[in-house]
């Protein structure tokens, strides 16, 4: 009897802890010839708010930089991005992915992300929060070639990620705003 209770408890614990990985890319978005604001609740049912992010179709926007990579194996790519010429120099340029209130979703764990810098190589500061509590910060050096980064293992049960591209100091009078493009993102929803 004790073994059965122990087995049921173990199976219940695994069920509570198990979360399926969610692969996010932007192929469901409509083709965009100019940048458009990312809608909240994308992908549908994920309850994510995309503050200060835009989406566009690489290869058809005349304002794109060399980091807007076109995958030859797909008909079109859509990317989400923050920064670049759409960033106001008077304000801090950042994008936030935040969990909104949703049924059965209370947090997420970021696993992996594929990103580039859009126009010039730059650094991006990634800050993680859980219900307003600081969890951690990391900095990535981005190039205009796609790179895949794995998030720190300690970043679990998050409610917000903030991406802050740094300004590129090639010109001290008018440093261009840094940028970050997201091609793919893997999260575990809890």
Verbal overview:
- The chain is mainly beta and 190 residues long.
- The protein has a single domain, classed as Jelly Rolls (Sandwich), CATH 2.60.120.
- 8% of the residues lie in helices and 38% in strands.
- The chain has one helix at 2-17; strands at residues 21-24, 36-37, 48-51, 54-56, 79-83, 95-99, 108-116, 122-130, 133-142, 147-150, 160-165, 179-189.
- Strands 1, 2, 4, 5, 7, 10 and 12 form a 7-stranded antiparallel β-sheet that branches. A 5-stranded antiparallel β-sheet has the order 3-6-11-8-9, with no helix packed on it.
- β8 (122-130) and β9 (133-142) form a beta hairpin.
- The two termini are 32 Å apart.
Following the backbone from N to C, one meets helices and strands in this order, namely HEEEEEEEEEEEE
Kindly report the CATH topology. Answer: Jelly Rolls
Number of domains: 1
- How would you sum up the global shape? globular
CATH top level assignment: Mainly Beta
Strand content: 35-45%
CATH homologous superfamily name? Protein of unknown function DUF4465
Q: Tally the beta strands.
A: 12
Classification by helices and strands: mainly beta
**Main sheet characteristics:** 7 strands, antiparallel
- Mean residue pLDDT: 86
Low-pLDDT residue spans: 1-18
Q: Approximately how much helix is present in the residues?
A: under 10%
The appropriate CATH architecture is Sandwich
Explain the layout of strands and helices.
Elements: H1 2-17, E1 21-24, E2 36-37, E3 48-51, E4 54-56, E5 79-83, E6 95-99, E7 108-116, E8 122-130, E9 133-142, E10 147-150, E11 160-165, E12 179-189
